[in-house]
Amino acid sequence: MSAQRLAMSDSSLLIARITALVGFVAVSSAGSCPPLGPVLPAPQSPSSSTHLRQSIAKLTSLLDTTLAARYNTSGIAIAVQSIHEDAPLFSYFRTPRGKASGYGTTRDIDMDTVFRVGSVSKLVTALAAMQQSRGHGLPGKIDLDASVLEYIPELANSTAAGVVKTRWQDVTVRALASHLSGLADDKFGLPPITNGTGPPCAAIPGASRLCTKADLVRDLNRRPPVYRPYAATPSYSNTGFALLGMVIEAAAGRPFKEVVQKHIFAPAGMNGSSFDGPVQSFDTVGFVPPMEPTWNATLGVYEPAFSAGGMFSSTRDLVQLGRSILSHRLLPESITRSWMHPLAHTSSPGQSVGAPWEILRTDNLTAARHGRVIDVYTKTGDLGLYHAHLALLPDYGLVASVIVAGAEVSADPLARTKLLSQTLRGLIPAVERAGRDEAREKYVGRYVDATTNSTLSVTMDGDDSDAGSGLFLAGFSARGFDVLDNIHKYNPTAGAGSTASTSSSPSPKVIARLYPTDVTSQSGSRCGNGTSTGTAWRAIVDSTTAAQREEQDTQLFYMDGSCEAWFGVDGPAYNYLTLTEFVFLTDEDGGVTGVRNLAFNVTMGKVKA
């Protein structure tokens, strides 16, 4: 069938949306607007990049200069690693000059030095709950959308006169994990209470009596909720995670620490991590900064039952935790993907909340002058003089860990996050460059099928600050017909009985960029020998100018209003097949052998340079 006949076929075969005609508006006033997520495959061997090695040297020098003048008694451990490599691509450690607290190790800080990591523990708790959940092929006993009363029914029996009682039937397990339960936090610092009416216990290191599970369940209703469940804003709650730990214990029928050891620490290779006090080797691997009062403190129900902040861990272990999550080794891939999404937003456009992800949104990490939006999935933790920040960057297949400890770093509540920011800003542009170099080598080229007179030309922008994202679709002809320059003619509203515009007006200039999806398949291919793996990419096409986009943004009340790439990921379709889907075929060695467009039924082999 000729391309002209394809364009004029029965309109009943054309399944399209008006908004998907030319990828809708795919570019914002600030520059290119790709879909959220990776715009190219994550680099498989970033550490081999010359550009990255240069960036590492600059970052190391910068940290040496800035930290030497700032910290004398604080310890610092930073590491960044790709899920595709066995060793960190960057690590930085700083041992205080004196390093004499009288406890723990006297060795220099390294990947295996053990710290307390505070509320990073909540990530492990939420992960354990996901593992014990039921549905999606999981055999667990936890229904994440069930009321907490299903697992802790005694909560309904606790009462308190004169206090607004929590509606426990509305508090779900998922709400506990995402700070949407509305339950109060466990902050302290209140004035004294007379006549013995106050709490008989506390979750403060060094308290005269630490709270037990029975204390928490009995007295929880004596404190009113902050909000009703699923309010407009999340409200950080250690209490919610204490209850989540109890839910896990009730469902598993064993102590929380045993569940975590068996299902998370052991399979992830986290040999230096513990919820049951410091590991036995703490004297030789544990770091205790001077005047640190919490290094061996217990938090009562807030620690062994779930740990709002009691986990001991190392840089290596936190990196391994992140790598295991991104590699789907601890949960089925579908569950991991559903878990790594926001469940609530905050009053900051740059911060959203998951279960219990602290999702940081940025547009200033890449080298491009008009940076693209990247979501970084993180969890922070603070306990005494210990502070940690674990970050996962799915777009790049990277995990970053920052742990700091000491009185000096504790004077700045954001010290660990500032170090994380400095590290990511120093490395991500080079990591992205490494990914671009790999993609250029693998995908860029000319693809031809002489039998059908079909060609595809794929290029990439340069590496300057104005470079666009993804692959650039320079041309596409199917069966001798120039599809790309006529893409606007595949218009479902052009007229009854016709799938193509008959207008004599000139075709608008279009820019098409290809972005990877996560859809793969295996099939035989005449582009190479044996079985090929096919990876689907989608082209988003735009024909607006920068001036038009800027004008559009001035007329809209919301940020980056002209950036609507998600409307155009699925373009016009023919016979159930999207015209703008291209499946790159790779051989057993990972080399690209060709590309297939199913809608036009053409398979084009890559022309060797």
UniProtKB/TrEMBL annotation:
Domain Beta-lactamase-like ARB-00930-like C-terminal: start-end pairs: 436-607
Species assigned in the record: Purpureocillium lavendulum
One Pfam assignment: Beta-lactamase
UniProt family annotation: Belongs to the beta-lactamase family.
Keywords: Signal
Beta-lactamase-related domain mapped to chain residues: 104-409
Keyword Signal: yes
Name under which the protein is recorded: Beta-lactamase
InterPro entries: ARB_00930-like_C, Beta-lactam-related, Beta-lactam/transpept-like, Beta-lactamase-like_AB/R
Gene3D superfamilies registered for this protein in UniProt: DD-peptidase/beta-lactamase superfamily (3.40.710.10)
Keyword NAD tagged: no
Signal peptide: 1-30
UniProt xrefs under SUPFAM superfamilies: beta-lactamase/transpeptidase-like (SSF56601)
